[in-house]
Specification:
alpha/beta; Rossmann fold; 7-stranded parallel β-sheet; globular; P-loop_NTPase; DNA_Partitioning_ATPase; ParA family protein; CobQ/CobB/MinD/ParA_Nub-bd_dom
Length: 251
């Protein structure tokens, strides 16, 4: 990519999947697709991705199968773990600009933001995004909260208060038993509200939360130090989502 693209999976409702999607997309694009990635953890004060990186580091010391998988990935790709910047929202863009201007080659910067738009630092970050992706689910609480968040950004866009280039809703935690026309009806409403929805829908599957274990020898899906295990990618729709996002960023 010619210039770094700024992307945030963002919503104000916990449990919607923004941090999980940030980590999985960053890991897939970096370790599998070979893009140069920077992840910025602005999720103050919990810094969820930084905590995930710490858990991965601990597992490297105590779990032989996890360490073997990570070392094999490094041997095959020649890649060390992607850089992770932990910073408060109000300082994030300055730090990122410093990294870019120092000559570091970066294709995509992913931002993990706090679940609020009542923070000036968060607003400033959102204003700089090429794409804001809002995870939604067919759950009343998550849907109402995420939709309110998206509509607030949409209001900023239409009134000229934000410079966000694109915003999309992303169906997450999709239950295969739900009727397809339910989502079609929702998307008709979203379109009436001027909101765009990504074509890819992410299924409700436990594999999205599958991290390394201190005691179990098992494939890992969500990690900051290696890609999702190939055996778990089938049916996850993660590769399809990655291709759709890349297509949007390159357009």
């Amino acid at each position: 990519m010619k210039d770094p693209k700024f992307v945030a999976f963002s919503t104000q409702k916990g449990g919607a999947g923004k941090t999980t999607m940030t980590v999985l997309m960053a890991s897939y694009l970096y370790y599998v697709k070979g893009l140069k990635i920077l992840v910025v953890d602005c999720d103050y004060p919990q810094f969820s991705i930084e905590e995930m990186r710490k858990r991965d580091s601990t597992l490297l010391e105590i779990n032989d199968s996890f360490r073997k998988a990570v070392m094999e990935n490094r041997r095959r790709t020649g890649l060390e773990p992607y850089p992770l910047l932990m910073v408060k929202p109000e300082d994030a863009m300055l730090k990122v600009r410093e990294i870019i201007e120092a000559g570091n080659e970066i294709d995509v910067v992913f931002f993990d933001l706090p679940g609020t738009v009542n923070n000036r630092g968060v607003v400033n970050i959102i204003n700089c995004m090429d794409s804001v992706i809002v995870p939604i689910a067919a759950d009343k609480v998550i849907l109402e909260s995420s939709l309110a968040f998206a509509l607030k950004i949409q209001e900023w866009l239409t009134t000229g208060k934000s410079q966000v280039k694109e915003m999309y809703l992303l169906w997450n935690q999709v239950d295969a038993r739900e009727k397809t026309d339910l989502y079609d009806q929702y998307e008709e409403l979203f379109e009436e509200l001027g909101l765009q929805t990504l074509k890819t829908k992410i299924p409700d599957t436990k594999k999205y939360r599958r991290e390394g274990s201190k005691t179990l020898d098992r494939p890992v899906f969500r990690s900051t130090v290696m890609p999702p295990d190939k055996t778990l990618l089938k049916g996850s729709r993660l590769p399809e989502l990655a291709e759709e996002i890349l297509s949007l960023l390159k357009s």
